[in-house]
């Protein structure tokens, strides 16, 4: 027997690590083999998938569609027929109605929220609470003393609340609906065999587990199924919707075919084993829908500021009440006016508006660089990203190489990728000649060189020595990880060619190394492996989502790039989801930023070109306005007068000292 091979049924015991032997055999075959009886062997018992007792009526859905065991995709076809109580002639109408009651329709349910309620939810946060309290004080409590309510302050506060809520509402719904985009990828109709072998065309949403469907060239697989027969023995499926890979995958009798994949060659009959949210595609949609309302990094910072303001204002209001009414016996209206000033002055009510306008300017700058921002807060979060997880297909493999790496002659141990990178660093980008252009095009990231290094000195090409010299300092701080549905060997080779490294794993193998009694140490080892790895292969949408989630749980702000439906869950979960050029609608909807040109250099531009100067300018202008008001204020209705430049100077010096201490 040539090469390594395995024979027998999965339930049999296997022999592993046979010394000087390339054949893996069963235990019985080892005992009867005279050739290897004298050799040291290691016997490993690989148990078969434990059977499920009962049928679809008695088995709980969670057990039937357990994502770890995946019983219906691994068991024999006979067991599939037994559990689903089906046959090669299909189901009857009565059976179909019973299954619809338990499994539901073959759709991805999505509940749209009331837009009015969604709009008012943007006024439900700590900063808004204090503003709303100030508005109530201005209109309801500021009465008496022969004076009308404080209408100017009330109107001003309400307008700011409406402006902030409007900006948040527009930003939320401008990105579109990722789940609806995912639904567009499902098959609308399919051919199904029912009622003693009668074929008919029905809406795909009417399918139930146990149905027998026909898949032909060009058809979209309507739900997860197992192949039961095929005239040619095999079919080819385009699984790009789930794995991101454009090369068709061959499937034979007994193999699982997944919802939303497309038949590229051959035809078959298959038995439906999962519909709706129980399919791999449905789980991806459920993950996307589940993370859409997660609070972003910037929102958490604003919430902390709001909570701090609430606590501070509450303390000072209590102190002010005792001082005014107990100590100085102020009149009711006079004290209420002072409390209103504290409520308004103690809260940065204009901060959300100023921040939104500033980030909008940054979004406009990115749009000029062919990057569309669908979630405006992603601009600020992108600047704090420490790890970038990137899909391979359609993202990392689109750069066109000009220099054939196989023909590079090496005179040192430097790898070809590093040779091209160093050559690109030594090119003159401003006045590039033909050779410089060739090298820069082969490097593929010429626009980002200035963001990657700081050039200390540069010596142009010398025809005598035939050398160009550059002294530089690297300034990159983001680690890039490849996450692909392709095979491990392809992922490693791609990583080596792109200079990303080849320390890559199959993610499912990592998590399956855990046993049922895993300890925190085991979880820490898995997290360490995920953090140190250069990439992961053979991943499904839920794997990409879990990888991003693990990195976030370790304290990293994670960006994710991708172009396919399979990337949508991770794009939605990441702090900054980036849909690359030619991405599908689902990826665009789930992403916070959409690129319109190939390449990832714009991400580096966004990281290093956050609107820092605009934020500084906005802060300085705000402080100057506040200082002028504090110095020259003369509000007779509160008996407040300006503090003068002396006290203002003291406050400025105090603020500068506190800032220096915090940044030390």
TrEMBL record:
Ranges where the Cation-transporting P-type ATPase N-terminal domain occurs: 71-143
SUPFAM superfamilies: Calcium ATPase, transduction domain A, Calcium ATPase, transmembrane domain M, HAD-like
Keywords from the UniProt entry: ATP-binding, Magnesium, Membrane, Metal-binding, Nucleotide-binding, Phosphoprotein, Translocase, Transmembrane, Transmembrane helix
Predominant location: membrane
GO cellular component: membrane
InterPro entries tied to this protein: ATPase_P-typ_cation-transptr_N, ATPase_P-typ_cyto_dom_N, ATPase_P-typ_P_site, ATPase_P-typ_TM_dom_sf, ATPase_P-typ_transduc_dom_A_sf, ATPase_P-type_domA, HAD-like_sf, HAD_sf
Membrane topology, as annotated: Multi-pass membrane protein
TM spans (from-to): 119-142, 154-170, 305-327, 339-361, 613-633, 645-661
Record-listed E.C. numbers: 7.2.2.10
GO MF annotation list: ATP binding; ATP hydrolysis activity; metal ion binding; P-type calcium transporter activity
Compartment list: Membrane
Domain of life from the UniProt record: Eukaryota
Protein family according to the UniProt entry: Belongs to the cation transport ATPase (P-type) (TC 3.A.3) family. Type IIIA subfamily.
Entry protein name: P-type Ca(2+) transporter
